[in-house]
Amino acid sequence: MTDYTQIIVDKVDGIATITLNRPEKMNAYTRIMGEEIMAAMDDIDADDSVRTVIFTGSGDRAFCAGADLTPEGGGHVFSDPSEVEDLSDPKVRDGGGLLTLRLFESKKPLISACNGVAVGVGATMQLAMDIRLASDNARYGFVFARRGIVPEACSSWFLPKIVGISQALEWCYTGRVFDAAEAHNGGLIRSIHSQDELMDAAQRLAREIADNTSAVSVAMTRAMMWRLPSGDHPMDAHRIDSRAIYRLSRGADAKEGIASFLEKRAPHYPAKVSEDMPDFYPWWDKVEYR
Fold it and tell me: How far apart are CA 96 and CA 225, in angstroms?
């Protein structure tokens, strides 16, 4: 899909920017938006020229003001409108969860540049992103208990990992909307910037990754960091670490990394994520999420 209607995708010098683009609705989330983001991620993962992805919202008021509950949003954002008796039916699937599962599978680093209000799915979709920056007018809210539902988009898995169980429960129990300072103090975001400086800061971080690192190394590191902490024993990590070091240390990127270091020059890593991932990747059982 390239004819996006609710997002904008730009690719410049190895950095892709995905902008949620419904400014008249404060970039409120719809099923169409979710499908477009997933399609964009499919394209980005297959594009070896893209090294890093930045997400932001259109305008200066909102990253995403949650699910669009109005008829204009298409309705039935949370799940399929059909009535089912078996709750294991694929129709009983949270749309935000399908999105965060796709983001979780990304082979590229994901950076959030939250430029305003981010509540509901606007907040939970960012949990599947790796590094979160915010503008000083950003507001977050895990407001589900105030809407008579529960945290969605796999946030019961992501949020405690990021901020700890006590902070996650407080934000979800109260459902309150809180400012960027509280988000920073609670460990949700890396840093706070003015509106004028937010995207520059995100670009600098993305540029540092794109210019200095091996794409294959970063893809492996992302998978390892997200998956291995959930293991029962550090031996789970040791097995994967060992295999990865064994394979990658014999590869072209390791040779280039050492040579560029010794020669005091910028590296030019030849390996491609599309072709050169280690032969044991993925080491986990694939889950069908769509």
Answer: 22
